[in-house]
Design brief:
The protein has five helices and seven strands. It has one domain. It is α+β, with helices and mostly antiparallel strands.
């Protein structure tokens, strides 16, 4: 897929730094997104290539159908090429938060318009007694895999979601720190 393993490794190292920071500043279940107007909702946000790690564009409430429409219309190739030019800030990322459970599911892209890969991130409460939020990152080349897993997330079929993503190649897992709160 990549012309060399070194290129892939360098891109992945840069990307993991972005993801680690992203996991630190986003998706705290205690924030103002917990319940909107007393409703059980999903909300989403976007980070464009080169954004400061702490910046995201909050988009508001979303359902699966609308999110997939936005996903399909997102300029992924343009954004990853832009990241390759500037090589600073974050890579393009779309994130959904389940405001009822505080779980977060996101997709990002690394590489360039010729050779690329999706990174799927899942943040959940791993240890309720110590309030440890956990981040797992998986790799896939397939857009159908990304969409299928988002459907499971929106359906709150977390057992099947976890089973599905854990069949993918694990890229990284770590504690997710919510530094913004």
């Amino acid at each position: 897929m990549y012309q060399s393993i070194n290129t892939l490794l360098l891109d992945m190292i840069r990307f993991i730094l972005v993801i680690v920071f992203f996991s630190f500043v986003s998706c705290n279940p205690k924030d103002d997104k917990k319940i909107i107007n007393g409703k059980d909702v999903f909300t989403w946000d976007v980070q464009l290539a080169g954004y400061d790690y702490s910046k995201s564009d909050r988009k508001g409430e979303v359902n699966y159908s609308n999110f997939i429409n936005e996903f399909d219309n997102f300029p992924w190739m343009e954004q990853i090429d832009k990241y390759q030019e500037i090589r600073s800030g974050c890579s393009p990322t779309m994130s959904v938060t389940d405001n009822l459970t505080g779980k977060n599911f996101w997709v990002s892209m690394a590489g360039d318009s010729e050779e690329n890969i999706y990174l799927i991130g899942y943040i959940y409460l791993k240890d309720k007694t110590r309030n440890i939020r956990w981040l797992e990152i998986y790799l896939t080349e397939y857009i159908t895999t990304v969409k299928h897993n988002f459907k499971l997330f929106f359906n709150r079929n977390f057992e099947e979601l976890e089973s599905s993503i854990r069949q993918l190649e694990l890229y990284e897992q770590m504690e997710s720190k919510d530094l913004a709160f």
